[in-house]
């Protein structure tokens, strides 16, 4: 148990071994944490729990530090199992009737997870609970990123308990942003945003504006994954606003899959054409690259060029999967184009081109396809393809 503010404690779990999350959808190279917080006041309040595999360790920690009989209420900001998974076990160890503070959607979701009709106290934006020297203020964060999401502001401590917002899948040596490698921290923060929160960017932009308009003094932001922001804590709010507003770092990412390197040769020639026109490019072979990292690179890019050779009248599986995830994440307002090699039928460039259009990207030129191994003249056409793309971005 670590005191983060006067009489407010981190009681979470560090998962050093975690390497995949959301099933096997998201890579977590640096592990993660499941952050739960205990407020000791006239009423002792537990804010969020931890993932179900750690329920016994979690319960033992709470029993040791405060006693489960002495917890007077539980705030569930979001009931996804990594935050609310051990709620059922914890409730079974506490006196009957302990209130659970959550949104209306939160109560519905908790009932579906645990099939219990506990003492739900429904809260909405602006509702408050006085627990002694501190007061809890609730802010609805619906669909950032679940229907039940909210944050809890601890008035008197100037502390935001933000759940998934402003978090990272990151398990460093320290809990605080001023005691960790900030390059690693921001790598994980933007990866978290890109892979989980991108579809909700419009909502995030409005919610950040709403939070700023509330003029809450903020000394610390404590999310439910990763580090706690105590040094210049609102920097991450500012970053979220920047990331939610058609963010790009100005470069192009070229992502391809290849069987016998013909498509790879095309990718390299396209990158050459971009470079000759002052546009920096990053190249990735999707079959040997981490997909979550690729999504992060796409999020940061101003332009996206995707290529694959043709196989069975379609595209290679790593490209097909990536394009589908791009569609689900609703990437918008990025320049795009398609390319590929083929042996006899040659559908892949057209398929990718249509998929990029379906994603909602700005497809700025016709796709280029080359049969079998490209000649020097055909590679020159790829260079020109890259040059044309660079000009389209200006």
Report what the structure shows.
The protein is of the alpha/beta class and 394 residues long. The chain has 2 domains: 2-243, Ribonuclease Z/Hydroxyacylglutathione hydrolase-like (Metallo-beta-lactamase, Chain A, 4-Layer Sandwich), CATH 3.60.15.10; 252-392, Rossmann fold. 35% of the residues lie in helices and 24% in strands. The protein contains 12 helices and 24 strands. The protein has helices at residues 55-65, 81-84, 87-93, 104-114, 182-197, 201-213, 235-243, 262-275, 291-300, 317-329, 348-359, 376-392; strands at 2-5, 8-10, 13-15, 20-21, 26-27, 32-34, 37-39, 45-47, 73-75, 99-102, 119-122, 128-130, 135-140, 150-155, 159-163, 220-223, 252-257, 281-285, 303-308, 310-311, 314-315, 335-342, 362-363, 368-371. Strand 10, helix 4 (104-114) and strand 11 form a beta-alpha-beta unit. The protein is elongated, with a radius of gyration of 24 Å. The mean pLDDT is 97.
